[in-house]
Write the structure tokens for this entry.
Amino acid sequence: MTGRVTALAPASTCGPLTVHEGDGFLRATLSRPERRNALDGPLLTLLHAALDRAEALADCRVLILDASGEAFCGGMDLGTAVGPDSAAPYWRLLERLATTDLVTVSLVDGEATGGGVGLAAACDLVLTGRDARFRLTEVLLGLVPAMALPFVARRTGQHRAFTAALLAEPLDGPAALAAGLADRHGVVAEELLRPLLVSLRRVDRATTGALKRHRALVHPFPAGTGTAAADLLAERLADPAAVERLRRVAMTAAATGAAR
């Protein structure tokens, strides 16, 4: 970044993701508002590609994740993406957000549910606005937020993350800030971004990478955490009660979409 934050370059839109390149940052905007910006295979692929692009830009220091519409991210798309095949790309994306030498920032000014909570929590900094809501809803479907939970717990502490998952407890912006799930809260998350980018001009990318590598060394996830989480997902998806709950939710979502 140079001495000022410039306007965004023209957007590049590829299906459900819109990408802007700015002065020292790349911004990736989830653009599936009709599906509450739910994650599916193509969107996960595009998010990985956006991160690849940001890492390849020599002058890029910050990756920003935000969303269009009323929801930040509705988690995994129940119609297409829930299954072991989607687990590895999702886990790897969270890992990359947490370990890349870029500063990763999520702007949450809508609902983040299920895997959407993990997507935000994996970022280095979470900015929330008055419409932000976080809720781990997997237990209501007979599932477990096994992939999101380590990234949430890294912020809130293990027991706080556990109770949030067990109770499917909704947290607004101030509650998320108090719990450690968010780092800044304001009326509008976007208004918090510019001063943050100005502040981050003082930190070069190599130093960010060194700091993040040291954190991973001092506070590592246990080996095999991602594999164990994928195995647990497969196990829960084989449970007849969970299958039935997912079927009902998918039917309701399809009916709602058709009504629109």
User: Anything to note?
Assistant: The longest strand covers residues 25-30. Residues 240-259 form the longest helix (20 residues).
